[in-house]
Amino acid sequence: MIEVKNLVKRYGDFTAVRGVSFSVRDGVICGFLGPNGAGKSTTMNIIAGTLAATEGEVVVNGYDVYEDPIGAKSSIGYLPEQPPLYPDMTAGEYLAFVGEARGLSGDKLWEAVDRAVERTGLGEYADRMIRNLSKGYRQRVGIAQAILTDPEIVILDEPTVGLDPRQIIEIRSLIRELGRDHTVILSSHILGEIAEVCDEVIIIAHGEIAAADTLENLVNRYEGKNIVDLTVRGDAETVRRIADSVPGVTDAEIEAKSAGIVRARLSADRGTDVRETVFFRFADARIPILSMSYEETTLEKVFLELTKDRPESPADTVDTADPAVPEIPQTPEPAETSAEPEEPSESAEPAEETEPAEPAKPDKPEKPAKPAKPGKKQSDDDYTPLFGG
Predict the structure, then answer these.
(1) In angstroms, rounded to a whole number, what is the distance separating the alpha carbons of residues 242 and 380?
(2) DSSP states of 10-69 as a string?
(3) Gap between the Cα atoms of 194 and 196, Å rounded
(4) How remote is the C-alpha of 192 from its chain's centroid?
(5) Distance of CA 28 to the CA centre of its chain
(6) Does the global pTM surpass 0.90?
(7) Gap between the Cα atoms of 71 and 60, Å rounded
(8) What is the pLDDT of residues 19-61, one digit of tens each?
(9) What are the C-alpha distances in Å from 378 to residues 321, 324, 327, 334, 374?
(10) Are 119 and 173 in contact (CB under 8 A)?
């Protein structure tokens, strides 16, 4: 239904989306999950055809978004994060306006409006001015315009943002209902919302796909995995042998510290607590356990791990040393003289009768060394920013 290949979007020197590739099958609710600024809305806009990509390919329902935008857009109903509403219209008038813009007229137009109003629960609110509707009902109007022409694909970008708990529950119920007849892509940064309504999950971080799978597989792969963190006194080889002998341990990270101290991080099967067995195995080997901690990895922790901040790479950093601070042309410094310039005398008198006009000036204090100018920076230590910056 949707194929995204090597999608890239740059805004000047900033790359918002970096080689994103994924596919969405027919008839599923796919959650597009990621922190704020991860590139979710940019990707949604490109799929919907409202934003051009820098590189890559997007195919929607068999239509290339760039080669056949009309065919692709006719298959999509799109709700951006900020619903495109006209507050001086009633909800019904607005839906009729959208329907006419999409080529509907006559009985087909009003049948589509009535169907969208009924499905989104607008009912008696259809004749109210949009500016007088609550945030939740404005979201319903936005969803109604997205499904007005009964498209195969519905894209919802943060549909529950800013809603109260009751409104969130109602919108989630509506999304589940839409999933029965449509392919739905739901963008959100709330993990609970994705887990509540979605069949598949795509996690995006730093403009890249961090994970993509069905929700069930992601849960089976990560959620509930138990981790035991040990610090023992012994040698790494023996610790490795004991850790591998414990039933239920699926992975062991062994790190030798100084003075015969070894750290072991043991991952166990889901629902298996191996702490007691680990304790007795090391006790039988007469290897003292100096510390033991236990943690259960949940899907929330996996999400935080996959989307955590990372150090900037050289490609992400813009070199502003020379381009942003233009080099100031150097002007030659006047030569310093040790004496004041001579003034022309008004009369020529014998030298022996000429007295100094002013008493001898004391030696001038030595001038401090001038800082290096920006264009001739000698080192980081003697650099003086422009304009006192």
Answers:
(1) 53
(2) EETTEEEEEEEEEEE-TT-EEEEE--TTSSHHHHHHHHHTSS--SEEEEEETTEETTT-H
(3) 5
(4) 18
(5) 24
(6) no
(7) 9
(8) 999 999 888 999 998 888 889 889 999 999 999 999 999 999 8
(9) 14, 19, 14, 22, 9
(10) no
Residue type, 246: V
Per-residue pLDDT tens over the stretch 188-208: 878 778 888 998 999 999 899
Q: Which residue has the tokens 């509540």?
A: 196
| Angle, in degrees to the nearest 10, between helices 91-101 and 135-146 | 20
Name residue, tokens 């007295």: 355
Return the structure tokens found at 347.
């009369």
Q: How many residues are there in the chain?
A: 389
Q: Could you tell me the two tokens for 76?
A: 């999509």
Mapped onto helix, strand or coil, the DSSP state of residue 6 is: strand
Q: How far apart are CA 320 and CA 36, in angstroms?
A: 27
- In this predicted structure, what is the pLDDT of residue 310? 61
Q: Are 3 and 190 in contact (CB under 8 A)?
A: no
